[in-house]
Amino acid sequence: MEHWFLDSEFPNSDKETARFHVIPFPLEDTVSYMGGTANGPAAIIEASSQLEQLVEGFGNPGLLGIHTREPIGTDGMVAQAVAAAAEAILQAHNHGAIPVLLGGEHSVTNAAIPLLRDRFPRGAVGILQFDAHMDLRNAYEGNTLSHASVMRRVVEAGIPLFQVGIRNYSEEDLEARERYQVGHYDASFLYNQKSIHAIETLDLPASFPKQLYITFDVDAFDCGLMSATGTPDPGGLSWWDAITLLTVLTKNRTIVGCDVVELAPNILHHPSYTASKLTYFLMGLASKRCSQ
C-alpha cells in the first residue's frame, strides 16, 4: 500500500492488534449534484500525513494502532460493494477494532447496518448522524441504496437515529422523521443557542442507546468551511460547533464505529485536511468512549 492513514507518524499497524481499522470505500454512484466523492478516501488519507499525533483533550490515539486496509472495490454492482464493505466492518469488529469507514458518498453507511443490526441486541446501538440532510427518503431516483435514502434503511432496520445539523430536507424526509420518531438538533435550533456554552449543555435523550455509531457527512459543516462536497449548504456547523457537539453528545457513551463521508476533493487543500483532522478526532474520541 502506497499510503496509509497518518503514515508520516506511524507504520501501518497489523490488523490483528490495531485499535482502529480504516476502511476506504470510494463509492460514487448516486450523487445528485457535484461529483468527486470517489476521490474522498484517498484525499483524507493523503492529508493525514500533515496531522500531528495528539488530539487535543483525547491524547494520542495513533499509539493504539491504526490499520489501513486496501480500498473496497467499486467496479461492480453497488449492492456487491456495500456487502464487501460490510464484511470488512465485521472483520474489524471480530478483531476487537473500531471500524473507521471513509467515503465516498453517504450510501457507504449502508455497510454498517449488518454490524449494528446483527452483532448487538436490538436497540442497543444508535446512530448519531451529522448532516445537512435527513437522508430519509424511501428511494431517490428509484434507488433504495441512494445517499438520500441511507438513513431510511437504518431506521427500517430498527436502529435508533439522532440527527444533528439538518437544514435541507423534503416533505418525505420530514414525514419519515416523524413516523420513526427520529430525535434531532437541527441547524436552526443550534443557531438559536447563540453560544458555544449553550451547546455544551446539550445531551442525547436518556432513552437513546449508550452505544453509538457516528456517521459524519462533511456537508454538516458550513459551506464556507467545507466547499468540497456534493451539496455544500450555507448555515452549517463551524469546526468548534462540531467538535463540541461530538464531545458532549457522546459523554458516558461507547463508540463502536464511525464513518466520514461525502468529501469531494477540489483544488483547495483545507477541505481534505479538515475531513482528515475530523477522522483522527473521531479516533481520539472513540479511544476514550470505548468498552473494549
TrEMBL record:
GO terms for biological process: putrescine biosynthetic process from arginine, via agmatine. Gene3D superfamilies: Ureohydrolase domain. Signal peptide: none annotated. GO terms for molecular function: agmatinase activity; metal ion binding. Mn(2+) binds at residues 106, 131, 133, 135, 217, 219. It comes from the Bacteria. Binds 2 manganese ions per subunit. Keywords: Hydrolase, Manganese, Metal-binding. Its cofactor is Mn(2+). It holds the Pfam family Arginase. Belongs to the arginase family. This is Agmatinase. It comes from Sphaerochaeta halotolerans.
